[in-house]
Amino acid sequence: MPVVTDKSGIYSLGGFAYQIKVFVCYALILEEGMQAGFETLEDVTIRKLVPENIDENEDKFRSLFVSPSGISAIQVKRTAVDKSTAKQILLNWILLEGTKSDIVEYVLFTDQSYNNGDIIFNITVDELFAEVVATKLTTKSTIGKVKKLYKKNKEAFIEVYNKIRSKYKFIASVDIDREINDRCRLLFKRGGINPVVYQKRIDALLQHITFEIMNQIN
Known about the structure:
The chain is α/β, with parallel strands linked by helices and 218 residues long. Helices cover 49% and strands 15% of the residues. The protein is built from eight helices and five strands; from the N terminus they run αβαββαβαααβαα. It has a five-stranded mixed β-sheet, sandwiched between helices. A hairpin with a 2-residue loop joins β2 and β3. The two termini are 38 Å apart.
């Protein structure tokens, strides 16, 4: 029988690498007094960078883009976004909105090749609240944490839901590598050097940031 290779680990690492590229893409437009953060405002620690950990905690990775006007919370998905995934993203944002008052933007950043639709708010606030109060999951789960916060205060839940909706943006990137290439044009002097040298500078930047992120996770 032919050997069947399990590629799930490769796909997980591919998604992780894509998240880093999105982080770099945002970091390249920072101005003085601004900052970008990777996997912040979360209490999850991944001690070993193995496929099982990435799959289990994939929705916990978030890039934050901090500008003078406030924080942009960016959730990256290089995969198909179904109803369950969309609901989990929204629940995470509900927790975040309840603890941070300076979030000015919630972004779902996806790769256009997955043909994801903008379905985050396909579930109504009444439907979501009913699921939250009915859950039997403990407060170790995201939905359990949301229930603990809002089960006796539907009005507050509705207010948070609407705030997130008013600050929400959906992005389907056509080519993240081209976006990084364009944003590096001034930093690495694209117009004045050989294209091969220019690309090597970008590659070196990505390698350096990837190493630093993985080192911190480890």
